[in-house]
Hints:
The protein is an alpha/beta fold. Helix content is 18%, strand content 28%. The chain contains five helices and 15 strands. It has helices at residues 107-119, 136-144, 157-170, 257-265, 298-313; strands spanning 52-56, 65-77, 80-89, 94-100, 127-130, 149-152, 197-198, 207-214, 233-234, 246-253, 269-275, 280-285, 289-295, 317-323, 332-337. The chain has a six-stranded mixed sheet, with helices on both faces. The longest helix has 16 residues, at 298-313. It is globular, with a radius of gyration of 21 Å.
Amino acid sequence: MTMRRLGTIAACCLAALLEGASGFAPLHLGSLKNAGHNVAVHMSSESVVPASTKELIEGREPTEEWELDCYSRPVMVNGKKLWEVLLTDSSGSFRVCETLPSNKVNSRELRRVVEEAMEDSDAKPSTIRFFRGAMFNMINIALSEVDVVARPSRCTFALAQWLEERNRDVYPKMDGYRATMAAGTRGPSFLDVRTPVKLPDALRGEKYAFVSLPLAEFREGGGVTNENIGVGRICPVDPELPADAFVQGVVILTSRANALASWLAGTEVSDFKCDLRKRMLVMETDIDNQYLMAKLNDVQRAEGTAFEEGKDALNGLHFVSVQTDEDDDPAGFWLLREIPEGL
């Protein structure tokens, strides 16, 4: 297939390799066309706690990849925490919210909510992702008797966006709201004692570069779509982000691009981050796994600082592209988001 060039990816490229060479030719991504629709619908605030609600979001195609959360919210009801089950899909085409009495927070009730949502949906899920490690056992048990693949993963981007909306627009307007229960932050914690696992040599990139792409490329009429990202995937983009912004990213160049991209596609890669204190480029997967991608010297650490600042400016949005060389089409391209802690 003939592929048109996106043009120089390095419009704001930092043009520095993390390993080896000191410079880098302008990077190109191949055919990237016809971005999909991104329509945001904000939920109205509730003055009372509903038992169950379902909302269909116009303009979003249903998917077979669902996202689930079951947890307490920063609201007290009759002296007890408000518990909710939230269900959506990877495109955010629907939103199911059901409250649970605190004495019925168990795997049986959770399974009932999931099964009822499946019966009411035209697109049945093949996979249900959940990000909350504290609820791993209960969710895993609930989904073990449902005909889906349960995946612990932080690739719950549509769910995270919905939770942020509710934390901002819904819970504060409820009677019994407790702001002290809602505090959350994004970014690395100095209490994080995890040690990233080193990638196998056969999967390590030979060169890395910090680059950027216009945010417009990920919106309607832009060049990046699900049809031209190889084995990658694209997370939902908040339509309220500034249209003239640039999305920061990492390009991995390797002669084993297909192997590395396939391996990444088999993991639940959720985000990339520069740990500036430990001077490392780290890939986050699943619920809490980390992989060391590269060590950062002083120059690279400064570039990593710019990468993290760019992520902060766009609420954690960033991308990674795996390519054979700078002129090649991506073997895999992922638009990712580092979701906030404390959701």
